[in-house]
Amino acid sequence: xxxxxxxxxxxxxxxxxxxxxxxxxxxxxxxxxxxxxxxxxxxxxxxxxxxxxxxxxxxxxxxxxxxxxxxxxxxxxxxxxxxxxxxxxxxxxxxxxxx
Length: 99
What we know:
Number of strands: 4
Shape: globular
Distance between the termini: 9 Å
C-alpha cells in the first residue's frame, strides 16, 4: 500500500489569527492519539514567492496508507480539533496524494 500525504492550508477569519498556534499545537498531539500517522509538521507561511493567496498556515500529515487517513478523518480526536477551530477559519484547502 502507498503512503498518503495529507496537506492542508488555512486562512483565518479577521481577528482570529491568534488561534493559529493553538491549532497547530492541537494537531501536533494527534499522532499520539491516532494510529497510522507517520509524520506531522505545520507552521506559518514563510516563502518569499508570495503565492499563498492569503493562506497563512499549513500542515502536513503522512499516513501509512489511505485506510489510516480515512480512520483519522473520522476519528473523534480529529473531529474535536475540527469543531474547535473550524469556526475561526475563513477558508481551508486540503489536498491528498499517494506516494
